[in-house]
Amino acid sequence: MSLDIRLVVLDMAGTTVADDGLVEQAFQAAAGRLGVEAGSPEHARMLEHVRATMGESKISVFRHLFGEEEKAQTANAAFEAAYHDLVDAGHCAALPGAAEAIAELRGRGRKVVLTTGFSRSTQDRILTALGWESIADLTLCPAEAGRGRPYPDLALTALLRTSTESVRQIAVAGDTGYDMLTGTRAGAAVVAGVLTGAHGEERLRADGATHVLASVAELPALLAG
């Protein structure tokens, strides 16, 4: 059966943007702000949760880890400040072929929406650092879509905002199991996992990947088939 994909929803960190451990470095700063000592059993437990939930809204992760809303907000603010410092220091780069893939998808008449688990301020910091302010038709963060991953809200908000007619015209691509869950729960026809980020093929397929690609650079060819 041929695909009629009109909307491509792409994750950022780990999918189109290199992570290179930035999330974990920023988490270290957030944990330290709350008095969690690096190398302690508590720190190790928290870091394991951060890795398992890559792709989820960061404030949701901190709410799970710290329980109290005040502590979660403090941790999230420390995380964002640390991440912004890393981006400002030049530790932010597009993954090879990502910009070209986005341009090719849009050149074929498809809408492209970039999504993230970060806040709008962090998302904008990354877009500005890469010169990507106009690279996509739309960019979305969890606060603009109701709920973040693994819920379908980001993909469905992208559908609504781009006036796409059907969920079967959506392709979702990401590097985490939570991206795959977002795509499957939204009813996307293509849910593509990429191996440039947090999770491996086993996790991606377990969470619903219809395809697993070496990188997002392979996505235009997949959708052209």
UniProtKB/TrEMBL annotation:
It holds the Pfam family Hydrolase. Gene3D superfamilies: HAD superfamily/HAD-like (3.40.50.1000). PANTHER family: PHOSPHOGLYCOLATE PHOSPHATASE, PHOSPHONOACETALDEHYDE HYDROLASE. This is Phosphonatase-like hydrolase. The lineage of its organism: Bacteria, Bacillati, Actinomycetota, Actinomycetes, Kitasatosporales.
